[in-house]
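Retro notes (design track)

What went well: tokenization of the new backbones is finally stable.
What didn't: we kept losing track of which sequence belonged to which structure.
Fix going forward: every design gets posted as structure first, then sequence, in one message. First example under the new rule, 192 residues:
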């Protein structure tokens, strides 16, 4: 009877440890990381809306507010996640996530700056405007030079978007996915 009681006690302690792992670590971690992941998707959509030439100023402001709110939710999610206990392996993954997120946020800020520089020209389709001015024989005018400068500024935006920002976004997404997967596996192991 004593042996059966001892085995039962060990089983209860093991079960308690698994419940603790799920309740104190895996579930809160997954919850906060999914909040970050969802906010990143919202931020990305609102961010990309800034670069659609036909989006009105009012709509861009609405989308910019969504972007700011999503970035706040990302910071809150990371803030809550940061307070949680983590295993050494999880902490190592987390420390790999933060530089990727900072890099993405920095590339977003730079791209927004470049886009604002382009928007200052107030020419929605600069290459089309250039073509129309060329066709009208106005290639030596200030209007044509402005359209040419606007086209160069717009190319700079799109090149930065495709060559710098999108890879930084993907890296940040991949890092958070690794961390989510780690926590999901941790929860699955505890359930076994």
């Amino acid at each position: 009877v004593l042996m059966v009681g001892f085995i039962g006690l060990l089983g209860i302690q093991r079960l308690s440890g698994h419940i603790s792992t799920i309740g104190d670590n895996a579930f809160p971690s997954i919850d906060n990381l999914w909040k970050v992941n969802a906010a990143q998707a919202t931020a990305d959509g609102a961010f990309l809306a800034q670069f659609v030439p036909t989006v009105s100023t009012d709509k861009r402001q609405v989308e910019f507010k969504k972007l700011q709110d999503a970035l706040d939710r990302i910071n809150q999610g990371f803030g809550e996640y940061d307070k949680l206990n983590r295993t050494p392996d999880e902490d190592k993954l987390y420390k790999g996530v933060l530089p990727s997120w900072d890099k993405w946020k920095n590339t977003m800020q730079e791209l927004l700056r470049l886009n604002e520089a382009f928007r200052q020209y107030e020419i929605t389709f600069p290459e089309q405007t250039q073509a129309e001015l060329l066709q009208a024989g106005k290639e030596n005018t200030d209007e044509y030079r402005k359209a040419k400068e606007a086209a160069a500024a717009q190319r700079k935006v799109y090149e930065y978007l495709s060559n710098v920002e999108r890879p930084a976004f993907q890296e940040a997404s991949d890092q958070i996915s690794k961390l989510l997967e780690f926590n999901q596996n941790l929860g699955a192991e505890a359930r076994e």
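Added context from the reviewer: Confidence is low (pLDDT under 50) at residues 15-24.
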